[in-house]
Amino acid sequence: MVARNNLFYIRSMEKLKPQSNFKTHSPQVIPLEKGKIPPQAIDLEEVVLGAMMIDKRGVDEVIDILHSEVFYNAAHQKIFEAIHNLFKEGLPVDLLTVSSRLKKDKNLDAVGGEFFLIQLTQKVSSSAHIEFHARIIIQKYIQRSLIKISNEIIEDSYNESTDVFDLLDTAESKLYEITQGNIKKSSESAQDLVIEAKKKIEEIANKEGLSGIPSGFSKLDKLTSGWQPSDLVIIAARPGMGKTAFALSMARNIAVGHNIPVAFFSLEMSSIQLITRLISSETGLSSEKLRTGNLAKHEWEQLNVKVKGLEKAPLFIDDTPSLSIFDLRAKARRLVSKHGIKLLMVDYLQLMTAGGGQKGGNREQEISMISRNLKALAKELTIPVIALSQLSRAVETRGGSKRPLLSDLRESGAIEQDADIVSFIYRPEYYKIDEWDDDEHSPTEGQGEFIVAKHRNGGLDEIRLKFVGHLGKFENLETFDFSTEYPSQMNAAANDDTFKASPDQAFGSSMNDDLSPEAGEDVPF
Q1: How far is residue 519's CA from residue 30's CA, in Å, rounded to a whole number?
Q2: CB under 8 Å to 321, separation ≥6 — which residues?
Q3: Which of 290, 313, 288 is nearest to 300 (CA)?
Q4: Which of 201, 333, 315, 304 is nearest to 258 (CA)?
Q5: Distance CA 408, CA 395 (A)
Q6: Separation of CA 368 from chain center
Q7: Fold (CATH) for 42-132
Q8: 166-182 burial by CB neighbour count: b if 16+ within 10 A, else e?
Q9: In this structure, are residues 467 and 242 in contact, taking their beta carbons and an 8 Å threshold?
Q10: Under CATH, what is the fold of the domain 209-500?
Q11: Contacts 24+ apart (CB under 8 A), 303-310
């Protein structure tokens, strides 16, 4: 047995001996060209820069779509900066002026001297196809940016302390910036900003009408010049004042009247309820008739004809309940990217949640976080964001006219701080006040007031509007004439109880009777 084991051991060792025909392999050498390098188009960068120095038309065609960061070569970045500075100062761009500017900035030797500039101009004979070449350079830059962002996302994803919802929001925000061709710079010089501001002022001066998004209310538009990009607008009121009615009236004016895309996020009412109210406002048919379908033949014809404008309107309604600020930002980015949304409305702020894994602390801190994010969203998308808000019950306990004040904003002073415009809707008729507290003591029946209490970039005012309760809409006070706009309804009013309903009773919100879990207060609509 021992001998047999020894024999097995000897044979096993023999198998392990190096064989004469066994070849050892050295590590495989990978050619350099097999490696990965960032996407680039150096030849096209040279062609574009050369064309800009030999043909002024080439500068005009691409100066506004290129910036120094899109160039891969550091020397090319410095050359483009010199060309860009000459263009901004209104100086001619050619081989000599670019060379002189680089020398002045002490960058001439860093780019390769005058000989390198001469080589660039010799590579081209004209600026033909320069825009096409510039677009390719931008594409390469976008590819490099995507690689950079992807690497950052991968690194953050491996970090266990990173909140996954924050990571998703950051990733989507960075990708959105690339989609919009708006890859952000760390800072901008005062010179660049002044030039951009002057250009915008000139455009406004040459443009007829408003600089912002028109609300459809003439006096309000005159005060604000339209809702401005990047502004957060708060519209606050107590229950029954008509916040939703006002917001829907604006949405209708903007989307139907001006064909401007609008997104409406309703956390309280369903999309069908909202569109039914818009149909009522648009056609002049009461809400009761639309709910029951009890329409006469001529009213069916009226419905089919007058609703066509609303059908074609670029209005997008989202009725997701308990919408978080995280979800709102994601949805808003997609709507802007896909449909070109120019204005966003939220009804209403207090029904939103922090979401996204955020720990908002108490309700006041959570509302503060939501308002900050709404302002950040307005700046990111460069569109006005209008958020409806409720007021505290302090208004009801106040004597006199019960006119709302900034201190009545419920749950958070941060709302006032973050907003560019804070406004209130006030209808004294709701409180059985028959006359306005003005010099003329005019009647309050069927009227409301839009109070601009804070305006970061303009004046304050109290604007009277017409409120049509049974249609749930606001109109310009001086232009509205119900008898001429909807004559068929005036004839039917005597026999229709819905036309006799007071403005206070019409279009009440189902949320008005509920109690807020925080302070036992009623929740407005």
Answers
A1: 71
A2: 267
A3: 290
A4: 315
A5: 7
A6: 19
A7: DNAb Helicase; Chain A (1.10.860)
A8: eeebbbbbbbbbeeeee
A9: yes
A10: Rossmann fold (3.40.50)
A11: 303/279, 306/282, 307/279, 307/282, 307/283, 309/256, 309/282, 310/252, 310/256, 310/275, 310/278, 310/279, 310/282
Calpha distance 345→248 (Å, rounded): 9
For the question of whether the overall pTM of this predicted structure is more than 0.90, the answer is no
Angle subtended at Cα 384 by Cα 199 and Cα 202, rounded to the nearest 5 degrees: 15
Residue written as token pair 């038309």: 57
For residues 391 and 522, give the distance between their C-alpha atoms in angstroms, rounded to a whole number: 10
Confidence tier at 16 by pLDDT (50, 70, 90) = very low
Binned at pLDDT 50, 70 and 90, residue 385 comes out as very high
**Residue that has been written with the tokens 């894994």 in this structure:** 357
Helix orientation angle between 271-283 and 243-252, rounded to the nearest 10 degrees: 70
Task: Please report, as a single letter, which amino acid is at residue 459.
Answer: G
The domains of the chain are located at: 42-132, 209-500
* H/E element, 97: helix 95-104
Asked if residues 504 and 525 have their Cβ atoms less than 8 Å apart, the reply is no
> Which pLDDT score is estimated for 491?
44
Assess contact for 241 and 426: CB atoms under 8 A: yes
- In angstroms, rounded to a whole number, what is the distance separating the alpha carbons of residues 374 and 232? 7
Beta strands in 294-393 (DSSP E): 315-318, 343-347, 385-390
| CA pair distance 344, 197, nearest whole angstrom | 25
- Which amino acid is it at 457? N
CA nearest to 376, candidates 176, 164, 214:
176
Query: Given this model, what pLDDT does residue 187 score?
Result: 60
At 228, list the tokens. 């401005």
The CA distance from 40 to 46, in Å, is: 12
Catalytic positions are 268
Q: What is the DSSP string of 342-396?
A: -EEEEE-GGG-B--TT----SHHHHHHHHHHHHHHHHHHHTS-EEEEEEB-THHH
- Give the SS3 label for residue 476: strand
Kindly tell me if the per-residue pLDDT of 466 is higher than 90: no
* Tokens 């109690």, located at residue: 515
Note the maximum CA span of the chain.
127
Spatial contact of 405 and 238, defined as CB atoms under 8 Å apart:
no
